[in-house]
């Protein structure tokens, strides 16, 4: 087992122990009631779209759908495909195709991509309704189902906006509530996404399995944000990400960001020749504490490249991986402009929070955390 996998299991084990101490932290009565309501409606829907996180195509499976026969008409939508890359999504679509499951990659923030998903839904609905209803006067219901934070509400809004075709439907939009916090949707709501035939999509509350998953899956759900950062310290979660990153080839793409000493001296000399007004124009829009700025993200990427490329240890060894990660936390404190005067725990928590945000929004590259079955980690 790799050092990254071992650190992941450590995160999952810590979370599981916390859940044992606080039994209500996994599923409260509201999600349990929502699960029952969804289960009752699934057989009544014409089509089910199971939304999964493209970074964890297996770990984000909605377990409630396992109780239904293979004849259940559904599409697996691998959302957030922009965070994993087209080639990775195609590989997973091939996996689902081999299992006679219709799947697609989707990015809720890409209009053309949403049009493709809507077209797939419309074709599938027409196929299921059959030729006897080809007059297009029927009404179909599509149900979106998924675990927390896979982007269901964002998909509903995008489908609703793109699908309002007729001029009479271009009035004030009714939006599904989108939140960065998992589990914010509390009830089942209907949104129209198509005319002729009329198609309504149901946005449903996120649902988790009644049983706590194994530690490997649990660590991935925490890392991707499907479960809130409340079971494990953010620093431990960020260490898990860094272990994955350090074991990948992603950092090599940032080599051009690292300059040799002579290049730095030249740049510094050139900078000194800039006028004060020029410096003001260069930095007036920069806020050091805003880690989402391109300049800060570039510094973070450069820092990660330099710490890994200069590391002489073996990242396959857990102790040496942890030594590299400790060095990276110190270096990232400067890249994120976290005060060196802060207490270490507080400083590292801030670094971890900023780092996880950049990972979860795709600013630090593409990552698939689940392995295709048959691939040995």
Automatic annotation (TrEMBL):
Give yes or no: UniProt keyword Mitochondrion: yes
State where the protein is found: Mitochondrion
Give the molecular function GO annotations.
GTP binding; GTPase activity
Task: Return the GO cellular component terms, semicolon-separated.
Answer: mitochondrion
Q: Which PROSITE patterns match?
A: G_CP
UniProt domain CP-type G: residue ranges? 36-210
Q: Does the keyword GTP-binding apply?
A: yes
- Which residue ranges does UniProt annotate as crossing the membrane? none
Q: Please provide the record's keywords in A-Z order.
A: GTP-binding, Hydrolase, Mitochondrion, Nucleotide-binding, Transit peptide
Q: What is this protein called?
A: CP-type G domain-containing protein
Per the record, the gene is LOC100781630
């Amino acid at each position: 087992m790799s050092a990254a996998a071992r650190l992941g299991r450590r995160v999952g084990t810590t979370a599981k122990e916390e859940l044992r101490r606080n039994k209500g932290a996994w599923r409260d009565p509201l999600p349990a009631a929502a699960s029952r309501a969804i289960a009752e409606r699934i057989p009544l829907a014409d089509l089910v779209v199971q939304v999964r996180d493209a970074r964890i195509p297996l770990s984000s499976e909605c377990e409630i759908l396992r109780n239904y026969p293979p004849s259940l008409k559904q599409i697996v939508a691998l959302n957030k495909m922009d965070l994993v890359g087209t080639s990775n999504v195609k590989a997973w679509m091939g996996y689902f195709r081999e299992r006679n499951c219709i799947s697609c990659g989707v990015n809720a923030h890409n209009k053309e991509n949403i049009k493709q998903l809507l077209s797939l839904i419309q074709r599938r609905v027409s196929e299921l309704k059959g030729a006897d209803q080809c007059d297009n006067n029927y009404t179909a219901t599509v149900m979106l189902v998924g675990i927390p934070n896979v982007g269901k509400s964002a998909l509903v809004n995008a489908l609703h906006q793109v699908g309002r075709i007729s001029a009479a439907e271009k009035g004030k939009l009714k939006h599904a509530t989108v939140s960065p916090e998992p589990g914010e949707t509390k009830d089942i709501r209907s949104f129209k996404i198509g005319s002729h035939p009329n198609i309504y999509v149901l946005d449903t509350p996120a649902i988790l399995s009644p049983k706590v998953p194994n530690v490997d899956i649990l660590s991935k759900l925490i890392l991707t944000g499907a479960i809130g950062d409340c079971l494990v310290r953010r620093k431990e979660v960020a260490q898990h990400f860094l272990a994955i990153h350090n074991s990948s080839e992603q950092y090599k793409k940032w080599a051009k960001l690292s300059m040799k000493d002579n290049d730095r001296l030249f740049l510094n000399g050139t900078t000194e020749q800039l006028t004060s007004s020029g410096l003001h124009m260069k930095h007036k829009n920069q806020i050091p504490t805003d880690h989402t700025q391109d300049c800060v993200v570039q510094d973070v990427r450069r820092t990660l490249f330099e710490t890994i490329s200069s590391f002489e240890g073996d990242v396959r060894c857990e102790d040496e991986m942890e030594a590299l990660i400790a060095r990276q936390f110190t270096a990232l404190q400067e890249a994120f402009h976290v005060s060196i005067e802060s207490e270490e725990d507080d400083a590292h928590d801030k670094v971890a929070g900023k780092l996880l945000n950049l990972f979860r929004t795709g600013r630090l590259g593409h990552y698939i955390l689940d392995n295709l079955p048959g691939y040995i980690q």
